[in-house]
Amino acid sequence: xxRCAELVHSSDARDLYKELLVRQPNATEAYAFVHSRGxxxxxxxxxxxxxASITMARTMMRxxxxxxxxxxxxxxARRHRSNAHVVALHATCLFMLDDVRQSRILYERARAxxxxxxxxxxxxxxxxxxxxxxxxxxxxxxxxxRTDQTRPEGWTAMARFxxxxxxxxxxxxxxxxxxxxxxxxxxxxxxxxxxxxxxECPEEAAKMYAKAHALEPTAQTYRGLITSHVQNGEHKFxxxxxxxxxxxxPQNARALAAVGSVLAHSAESHAKAVRLLESALAQDPRCTxxxxxLASLHVTNNRLSDAVSLLERHLVENETDDMYTRYADVLxxxxxxxxxxxxxxxxxxxxxxxxxxxxxxxxxxxxxxPSAESDDGEPGEGExxxxxSDMSDDxxx
Length: 397
Description:
mainly alpha
């Protein structure tokens, strides 16, 4: 209402923004309006400090200084324990720092404090998609759409759900709707970038991540740009973004892994890539990007036993359906078929909608139980003989 009053130059705008500051001391837009009009704000020095704190935290987030921003927001949350917006911002900082478990707890706490909360829900749906939790993405999207269908967050979440269930064209339609509703929503372009990657359209993905990056640079937009350019064969661009990311987040294992992953695509840089990926794992043994990239590099260099050993060693700390699937993929390449089948089964128990695990399990089952030969002695039609060595590394990892 205050924004509408401002747009029509109503004298009520100042009073409405003042009232908003009483109810929401951290409303930076309201503070900026009142301050610009030279009107005395209805708050004391403590509240003014709170507004400055959240403004500072947002500025640090734009510079990818997530640790400092998280500390600032944590201090602010102690003074305003029931402020859902502050809690959600803190959750986003932790998500960008790869503390997924604590981030998810904070997002849920924010939603419990304010069931109508929309802010930062685009990032939350990205987290849930990363966790491969399709049910949670659907539940979040449904609730957001019930709350407000004129905002992009609900449509973005539902687009991610459709993409996770293989309905990529329908997902694109929804994410385009989100973009139409809010052309300046970076999360909607980020979501389309991920969907375009699933559609195997890295050029389009790079464009969308670039749009999101221009609106609001985040660790997520950097990773999207790196992945898109790598898949598009533009390794120089990918390396440039990876280098920028590690300069902005020098102590972040995932940022270091991004540089190693790009270098792994050049045979001359394999040794350096291994050192960087091992360094990332030394910083954070749970860094899945480093684990997957290093295992893939071992596979490329025909060091299957090293790949198996690496995934086996880190599986205890990363018990997700995705990691079990990747482990089973490498076991298939190593011709350890019974063990591969068992791990595909574990992945499917954890997530029955994991299409990659389903495909892998069926492939291994065919290899373990080849169809009966036809009368002329040739293998049965529809059951081609597949050797693990014939499978492409990209399909496996």
